Each structure stands twice: as structure tokens, then as C-alpha cells.
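User: I'm putting together notes for a lab meeting next week and I want to include a structural view of one of the chains we've been expressing. I don't have a solved structure, so I'd like a prediction I can at least talk through. The sequence is below, exactly as it appears in our construct file.
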Amino acid sequence: MPYHDGSDTLTILSAGGSSYGFRALFGRVIEKDACVFVLSNIQSANPEINEILDYVGDNFMINRLGIDEEKKVVASESTLPEPVKVNKTILSSYQGYYETEDNTIIGITLEGDQLVRRIPSQQTGILGQAIMHRALIPLSDSLFHVQGLRGVQYKLYQTLVQSEHSIQIIRDDRIRDRAERIPDQPNFDLSEYQGIYYSVELQRTYDFSLQDKKLTADEFLDLKNPVFVPLRKDLLGCTKGFLFFHRDEENNIRDFKLESDEVDAALGSMFIKK
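Assistant: Thanks for the context. Below is the predicted structure for the 274-residue chain, given as C-alpha cells.
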């Protein structure tokens, strides 16, 4: 990490993790022979929690290590350019599901006047963590800052061949990855996902059925007729998150695990098929 107007550099090693109702962050500053531990009794991965963790870490750097925050050359929410106003039609065109080269799914939805990005934690091997939900702050019609992630931007552009939108994932001004939009899959067989599903934790029953060749369940998480989009076998997406289906020894659907902003990813998210 550069500081003092870029004249000095600090090497910071960090690691974080979460479990049932807790999150933790550890950072070690090599040159200063110093460590900082941040413990939280909130499991959420929402940007506000990350900003709190960063705030604690930054205060440690300033007050204990004598590093002037005003001279740190690090992108932060306060040093970003002012967000711009983007036409809602343009924002709406970016909605959809995208897949990176390592098969990570990225869901982008328009909520009010703001784009929101969701990545299911289960597919990345992060256990016991809520869904990775972050707002996309527009810096131009096609460039967005990922809220809560310093130096991370999404560049949405249209491919010449398929005229479909893709994402350039930029970190510290370098393209680190790309994600291609997942096309509609009208031939995907959704019939086996139909049925009655029961959540013990929510004490609710939901009827999943096909309507006009689309899978839906009325008032699922208080959504009116949500559509579940097939992303790959046994993984479906919806406005509020992702559904991971599991099968029994005879290859029949047994249940699904929901990752959503409104249901804990580790507790209260299993729906059993009756």
C-alpha cells in the first residue's frame, strides 16, 4: 500500500472469515511489525460492515502507526469521483446473469434507480457467509464502482459478435477478469424443480410451478410471481438471490439452499421438498 504521497510503501497481509453470526478480519503490517484484529458479531457481508472493518483498521494505522490518512494514496469511498446520473433504460439493459472464466456467477439487478450486484458465496467455497451483495455506483454510463471494495470497478460493454453485454472486472486500474452474460436457456428442463417446498425456519410452504415455461412461486420471500432463472444444472437465480438444489441417491430433487439478502446463508435457508 503506497502512502506519504506515494513515496513510501507498506506491505499488508490480511485474511478474513465468517461463521454463524460472526465475522473477523486480521491484518499484519510487515514494515511496522504490527497487527490488527477486528471482530464483529454481525455476519452480513453488506458494504456497511466492510466499511466498519476498514474504519477500525484505518484508525489503527493513523493513531498507532502514525500514518497520515490524508496522505494515503488509496482509493476510498470519499475520494471517488461524484456519481453520475445514468438513464434508467441504460441501467435496465445491464440486468442479467454473467459468468466469469472460472465459472463464478454474477447477478445484476436494477432496484429503484440503482444497480445491485450479487455473487453467491457457496459457489466460491465460502461457508457460513451471507450473499455477497453490493451496490454499483455509476461513474459513467458504462463504468461502475463496486461499493465497499476499494479500487474495484465494473466496465459494462457490448460485444460485437453477439451484441450482448459483458463485464470487465477492474482492480487498481487493471483488467483482472471478464464475465460474459448468460443467454436465456428456453430448452432447459425446469419441470423436475416443480413441487411443494417447506422451510422449517420460516414456517412457510411454497408451491413452485411452471407458468408459460417459466418456474415461479407466488409470494416467495414476499415477491409477487418471481421468475427463477436457470443458470446451470441445479443452480437457479432470482431477484433476491440464488437457489442451490440438492439431490438424493436416486437423483431426485431433495431440497434447495437459498442464498439471499433476507435469509441467512448458513441458518434458516434450507427448503425441503415434500
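A couple of points you could mention at the meeting. The CA atoms of residues 11 and 30 lie 6 Å apart. The longest strand covers residues 12-19.

User: Perfect, that's what I needed.
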